[in-house]
Amino acid sequence: GRENVDSRHNRGRGGETTRFHTVNVAQPVRFSRKCPTGWHHYEGTASCYRVYLNGENYWDAVQTCQRVNGSLATFTADQELRFILAQEWDLEEKTFVREDQRRFWVGYQYVITNRNHSLEGHWEVAYKGSSEVFLPPDPIFGTAMAEKENVLCAQLHCFDLPTLWHRGLHSWYAENCYEKSSFLCKRSQTCVDIKDNIVDEGYYFTPKGNDPCLSCTCHNGEPEMCVAALCERPQGCQQYRKDPKECCKFTCLDP
């Protein structure tokens, strides 16, 4: 940003010279990167993606993605899925990854409706209200499936052989949700403020959290370069409550 001081001289009453100092606030810098470090950006959906290698069951994976302002990945179209399959994910740790395949929890669940001779059911997006329109084809059923389990969780399997990356070979598995696996998180490339508003890259905002007096710049989808304001307690009030979403706003609780 740039900072400039402009001195202006005007004539006040009585012929005195009044000096005004106008300070232009440093404008936020716009950054070229759109995702945090370690995430892959896809322009088609303005989204960021990251593989987590620490093996977790489906429900723990859901919570891990939520902690980074995301969710388990779902896909809006074949183009987005092809983008995921083409990425060379950093897979140095092989604890929960076979040498020839990459297996990731993703944001779908298979609901079983009939357990007769074959398992009949349908895929659903795991999170209601999602605008995703892509649903997987019929799954391959995992070997660790519980007999009484009526909901299975989606694993995307793709080949980890460099010669096959460009072909996008993959398969969909319906697995026991309590099995441990690597997983794929998806999040928006933008920041979200304390009032759930979307913040564009490079702009000031107050991030979600416990401090409504925090002002940060949205950088790579994360709050950075933050400064905090300190508030004096309300005068003449012994008991008070802070507003969790407004800086320096109090409610007096005295009778």
UniProtKB/TrEMBL annotation:
InterPro entries: C-type_lectin-like, C-type_lectin-like/link_sf, CTDL_fold, IDD, VWF_dom. It holds the Pfam family Lectin_C. This is IDD protein. It comes from the Eukaryota. One of its GO terms (cellular component) is membrane. Residues 44-186 form the C-type lectin domain.
